[in-house]
Every structure is written in structure tokens, then in C-alpha cells.
Amino acid sequence: MEFFKNILQYDPTRPMIFTTSDFWFFFAIVLSIYSVVYKKISLRNGFLFIISVFFYYKSGGYFFTILLFTTLVDYLMGLLIGQANSQLKRKLYLTLSVIMNLGVLAYFKYSYFFLETINNIFHSNLKVVNYLALWTNGVSGTHFDITTIILPVGISFYTFQSISYTVSVYRKKIEPLKNIIDYACFVTFFPQLVAGPIVKAYDFIPQLYKEYSLTKREFGFALFLILNGLIKKMLISDYISINFVDRVFDSPLSYTGFENLMAIYGYAAQIYCDFSGYTDIAIGVALLLGFRLPMNFNSPYKAANITDFWRRWHISLSTWLRDYLYISLGGNRKGKFRTYLNLFLTMLIGGLWHGAALRFIIWGALHGFGLTIHKLWMKFFPAKGGKTIYSHFISVFITFHFVLFAWIFFRAPNMQAVGGMLSQIFNHFNPGLIPNIITSYRAVFILLLIAFAIHWLPVIVKDRYKELFIGVPYVAKAVIVVVIVFIIYQAKSSEIQPFIYFQF
């Protein structure tokens, strides 16, 4: 009984994430049952919904009730929008959906920010109240802390995904779903539920009604993505984070300017390997289940300008912001000034989406400013002819280091740490200690070199080793999987390292 209790109950010290053995045990059971039910679409979708809710419960506890609430409300709003006989009613139901979604998101994500702002302005002493815990205690007799609001895992992702449905129904891109289980399957689909990629309703929902298909090549590609993601996360990101990056960012004044600078490079590699690693695994797992998720990263540090960067980094978020925020603000239809203002506001809100803190707002503002400056540059200095290798290198170099500078605000725990890092870099670089530092952190620096070298490899080289893995016999694939899993197991840290974007 204790064994089954451990399997079924949520343990906050042992959440179910892609890098734990618990998840792969869970996924093996899922595939076993899926192989029986996958031919009947209604049964398949119902099964995926049930195990997706269980996965979320094992990942984030009782907050699955918020997920179900969002699912139910937007399902009903979608029906009402589809049945409305006037444009006014359609707008009303869409507005209710957006207010509900953003209201729930704001409560969990921005309550502390809002109350702190109010307290500072009016010199009051308002305290947050966790109403979900309060209601749960009243109903079930539990004793959850009502003085602390915990951010539900993945709430920003599934909120945006659910909004995309009601907006798509309103814009008549899709018909409202009649079956609530099918809609719930779309919102809760577990591979991408807690950290994306954010899938648009009109891209994913048609797949719910297609028969299962998986070619031999797609199977090999799915395995490749899963292994690639695990290597990125557990061999590169976690090691760099634990052994170098976190130490420096948490106490920048304890390290030299060179170490602070290297920590910024390290964080660039860490967050890319962490987030793109999760995406790789999510896409691979979904593909094994017969669903195609969109690409979310395309070698973003190869970008030659900041616009190109956002075509390559977190593609599902940038396209969501474009389709549902930038266009809703007016896009480029309101004149030049409004175009630049809408672009800047979109990135500013994108920064706030990541967190209710000044540093996230600055991060979003920097990218909004960069996008605006790039568009103005292209207007007054349009490109003539093809770029030379030298000019392309300069463009990539400048873009990469602009992104690095912005990452400081994104990662630093507070603005004091930002100031400390910049002060150390410009005032206490200590070049004489560089050889000793490199020797002390040689494993970290070697991993950094390997990570960036692979990242900047030509696409043709990456495609070759990907196709090589896909093309080898199943026995060879099995051997490669065993070897890589063994290496990862030997290298993994003793403590579970959650994915960075779980906090958003």
C-alpha cells in the first residue's frame, strides 16, 4: 500500500518532470495502455485527458483544480461565442474569457507585486490571502497555509493556450468544440502542459480527430529529440548552473569581473539548453503519441539582429504575442508611430509575463527597444545586396551580446545583484587571475565551449548527425540510448533541478 501511495500521491520534494525516472516509468505505462486505446479516437482523447491531469497533479499538486476551472470556463465561453447571434454578444463572451484567464493569472502571479505597490504608495500594510487554500481548508478540512500564494506550475502557458482557443473561435478560425473532453485534452495535453511550446487551437485541435500515425523516420526523430533534450538539460545546463552560474549570480561581489562575465555567458548557454531541452523532449514525447508540436527554438544565438532572434527564440511565445497581442493592439495598421509603440508595448508585456519584477520589465523593455531600433535602422538604411561574411559575423556578435546584456536582468535575483555584476565587470576584472580561474573551472568552461560550438555548427552538419541516428538499425538505436542514459545517470546532480521555465 505504501508503494502505491507513493506512486499516486503528490510529493512536493519529488515532482514528476522529464528528468526523473518517475516520469519515464509513468510514460512507459501510458504507452502500454495507449497501444490498446489509440485506435478509437474518443477513447484515446479521454485517456490522454485523464493521464494529463494526473501528470499535472504529480507535477504541481492540487493546483490541477485551477487548470480544470480554466478548461471548463473557456469551453463554455467557446460555445457561447459560437452560438451568439450578434457581434456585441460575441465580444462580450470573448471579453469574459480573457478577463477570467488574465484575472486568475494575475491573482497567482502578481498579487505580491500589486499589494507591495499599493502599500508603498499609501503606506498601508495589506497582506495577501490564498483564497484557494482558504476554500480548500473549509471544504476538505485540510490545513494549507493561507498567507502565502504559490504560483501554479505552468499557469502562464496553459492560460495563453486557452485564450488562443476563444480568440480563434471569435475570429472564426475554428468551430467551437462540442465535446468537453476533446477540449480538455487540448488544454491539458501533458507533454507541453507546464512549459510549452504554446500550441494554437487551430493547429492542435484538428489533430485530435486524426487517426494515429507514426512513420519509422518519425520514431527515430522522436528518440533523437528526447535524447538531445536530456543531454542539453542534464549534462550541460544543470552542470553549468550548479557548479558556476548560480554561485556567481547569487553573490556577484564574491567573484571577479571575469567570473561575472563568464557567468553571463554561462547563463546564456544554461537557459537555452534548459528550455530548448524541455521543448525537445516535449516534442519527442508528443510525436510518439502521434501529435506534432511546433518547433520552439532555431539556434537563436545565430541571429543577425534582434528581430531574427525572436524568430528563433521561444517561437511559440513570440508568435502568440504577435497574433493575439500585437495585432490586437493595432499591429502596423495605425501608422508608423503606433507600429513602433505597439511593438515596444508587446515586448514590455512579454517581460511582465515572465514575472512581476522591475528586472523582467527592464528585460522586456530592452528587447522592445532593440526591435524598434532595428526596424528604424532598416527603414533609413535598407540592406543593399548580400551580406559579406565579415558583416554577418559583426551582426551576430552585436546581437548575441545585446541578448547577453539583457539576460543579466532576467537572471539576477534583484537589481542590487545587477549593479554588483556590472560593477565587478567594469571595476574589478582582475585579468591576472584569469589563468587560475580557467584552471579551477575547466570542466565548466569546456562544457561552455562544447555547447556554443554545437550551437553554432552549420545546419547541414546538424542534419547529418540527426539523419545518421534516425537511419541506424533499431538495435544500434537501443545501444546508443543505453549508453547515453548511463552517461546521464552518472553525471546527474543528486538533487532534482527543475526546468527554468517552470517558474513562469
Tell me what you see in this structure.
The chain is an all-alpha fold. The chain has three domains: 208 residues, no CATH class; 177 residues, no CATH class; 82 residues, no CATH class. Helix content is 70%, strand content 0%. The protein has 21 helices and no strands. α11 packs across α17. The longest helix has 36 residues. The model has no long low-confidence stretch (mean pLDDT 90).
Concise structural overview:
By secondary structure, the protein is mostly helical. The protein is built from 21 helices and no strands. The protein has three domains: 208 residues, no CATH class; 177 residues, no CATH class; 82 residues, no CATH class.
Shape: globular
What percentage of the residues does DSSP assign to strands (E)? under 5%
Largest sheet: none
Number of domains: 3
Could you tell me the radius of gyration in angstroms? 24 Å
SS-based class:
mainly alpha
SSE pattern: HHHHHHHHHHHHHHHHHHHHH
Report the uncertain regions.
none
Mean pLDDT: 90
State the helical fraction.
over 70%
Number of strands: 0
Count of individual helical segments: 21
**Ends apart, CA distance between termini:** 35 Å
Structure characteristics:
single chain; 504 residues; mainly alpha; 3 domains; 0% strand
